[in-house]
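Weekly puzzle thread! Below is a chain. First person to post its structure in token form gets bragging rights.
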Amino acid sequence: MFEASIFNSIGDFLSDKGLEALGALLMIYLGIFVKREIMPLLQIRRNREVAEYILVIADDVTDYFRLKFPSAHWSVWLDRAVDRIIEVTGVGRDVADRAAKAAVVRRGEAISRPEMK
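Winning reply:
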């Protein structure tokens, strides 16, 4: 009879407050796991999609200015292209500048680097 009362008390504990506590601990662990493992993967995917979006817009903008000023060197209209990329995407000037220069390079034109002093 003593064994039956132990199992009854264990069963009562596990069926009520014990399961609630175990469920709460599992939810906390699941939240930590999602924050550490899943969120960085989603952030990487989102960043990649945004970068592709910016590059497509940079390609379109540089193509537009290349067609608008066919005889001009790319350096003449590059600042206008950077301003347009900023206007469309809302990114910073450095990101828009890199995207515009990358679009020009992908089209086969060489970009000279600024000289180091």
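Puzzle host: Confirmed. Bonus trivia for everyone else. The mean pLDDT is 81.
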